[in-house]
Amino acid sequence: MCGDCTEGMVLDFVGPGADTFFDELNEKLPHKDATFTERPSEITGLGMNLRHAWQEADDFFSRISNEKDFLVRGFQNYAQHHEEQAQEKNAKKGTASSASMVFGEFVEIAVCRLFQQYILHGFEPTHLLKIEKRVGQGALSDYFESQRKAETGTIWDSLCYRETFVLRERWNDFIRSVTGDLRCAEAQVAAFIEKCTTGFGGGFPDEVSTPATTIPLPENLASAPSSVGKCDGKFFSEQFSATLFAMLILARYSPRHELLRKLALARPGFCDFCGNSYWIARWAFFHCVQEQGIDFIFENERDVRYLLIAYVVLKASLPKSDLHRLRLLIQELEPLMTWQVDDKQLIQIIDQRLGYPAWFHDQIDRIVGSWDKPGGKGAHPPRILTGVPAIDAIFPGFKPGEVTFVGTRYTNDGTDFGLNLLLATAGGNQAEPVVLWAMKSPSRQIAARMLGIKTGLSQARLEDDRKILQEAGKALERLPIVIRESKYPKLGDIRASANDAKRSNNASILLIEGFDLIALTVVERDDTDKEPKGVFQNLKELAEDLGIAVICISQMAEGLALRTVQYPDYAVWDCQRWLGVAERKTLADNLIFLDHETEFNPQLPGAECRVEITVYRQTAGSISTCRLGYSRETGIFREV
């Protein structure tokens, strides 16, 4: 199993289900009378799990002292099998068996944890004795000897001796030598970043990320260790321990060093090292967040892997205010498809850490489960109002057969605008059935957001008033809503869903959240609609054929959402890759844009920003603007 795959397993060892996972893993351990040759494939996978559990054990030195601990039991099985193979000499000359390789990695992980303990918590030779008792003096001596061969002539050579970890004087000499001039540690980390990573944005081809770039390294660094060579397995095996040690040295004695940031954000350019390369990245990333706070993620939002954010959320004790800020950030970012964790999974992990009570989750389940009920068969009004008087004064409403495009600067603003519209139409006096196609927000998240809008409660305090929430929940359960969740759908799927909702629910509005994801699909995958304008043409035909109003909400491309002197310029605001800037006449019947006049400060309780809503074009032909207050905490738009 490659490093990218095994990296995803790490969340099992730090997440809320870790105890259950450990119990299941414990049951798979071989009995004393079993041998490793009986179930080779299962044992190989077991070794992967044990190795990650060994890396992530919170109280490492207490656990390895406990004979009954399942990690210790699993390791003892590998140690026994390793010893049997060594005695019988069954392995081919020069080729290590799988059990021997895994055993050697356990020894390496133990030494890494020992160094971490010394650097961060002080000299304590009893920890080395615990490792020796578990792995044996011979195995530890063999590991030190192999490392000395790789580190000969470098500052790390003196570290590869038992005496360095048991004699305080030897340890102090090493610390003085490595901290007197940090250039050697810098060179070790810099060489790893340069040789073993692709830089920011590297990864699988199907990830939505920026192209890989070369990482600029600090000038005047000492030359890299002589053993640094081609980026291959031999290089990594030789340099892994020294690189991790160098990273810990910088974290301890230069905690804001730029190389730590680069190490935390850079992604290894290979995946066949069982996750150890990502172990370095996790430690570096965890340190940067601990040192700089949650702002480190905000400052580097485009370069951070979701898996590392999930790791920190589960591992660190972050305040609720930071978790809510992080939640909003993930909602606003362009969806990032990663190999192990996507945006929806990350939001679910954050919600788990927020710790909403069981009754709150039950309430959300009832709301979501109540939707998709058949609606009435009555006639629809000629125009459907937004429910916001300031907007209704400048925009006469949504007409059947028309397509309206709503562009926003931030994803969360557009989603909340759409949910306010949904509550006004489906939950107001009009009670018009609505089809909501959600591509950036799961249905449970939408239900929670609607509860905040309905009650006026902040998302951080939704569970504070159970009675109010239950009353609001009952009202939401009665809404005539059909909700669909799907990323990158084809227009045919949307048409089929809208047609079905029109027939069974008498739906009058199709509300599309995350319209840019539809458009990207059409441009890249749909052979029949290669031109961007085809998106609107298809939706226009859908609106006219079914007699419904289609509303598309989309976040504009960052950097293009600029302000002109008086109104947002349509040609500047448009996401040029799919909206067809040059041919405005056939794009949409109505164009509405949301822009911020003031920035939102999440640190201020109850803070809100000013939003300018411009009706750039409508069937009546007029251009008008109104201004509203908007609170991201509650999702409410109000007149000011």
List the main descriptive attributes of the protein structure presented here.
640 residues, alpha/beta, 29 helices
Describe this structure in words.
- The chain has 640 residues and is an alpha/beta fold.
- The protein is 52% helix and 10% strand.
- It contains 29 helices and eleven strands.
- Strands 5-4-6-7-3-8-9-10-11 form a nine-stranded mixed sheet, sandwiched between helices.
- The longest helix is centred in the first third of the chain and has 24 residues, at 98-121.
- It is elongated and about 85 Å long.
- It starts with a helix and ends with a strand.
- The model is unreliable at 198-232, 522-532 and 558-586 (pLDDT under 50).
What is the gist of this entry?
The chain is an alpha/beta fold.
**Rounded mean pLDDT score:** 75
- Number of helices, counting only DSSP H or I runs of 4 residues or more: 29
| Main sheet strand line-up | 5-4-6-7-3-8-9-10-11
Give the helix/strand class: alpha/beta
The radius of gyration computed from the alpha-carbon positions, rounded to a whole number of angstroms, is 29 Å
Strand count, sense and barrel status of the largest sheet are: 9 strands, mixed
Helical content band: 40-55%
The proportion of strand residues reads 5-15%
Low-confidence stretches: 198-232, 522-532, 558-586
| Shape type | elongated
Distance between the termini: 58 Å
Number of strands: 11
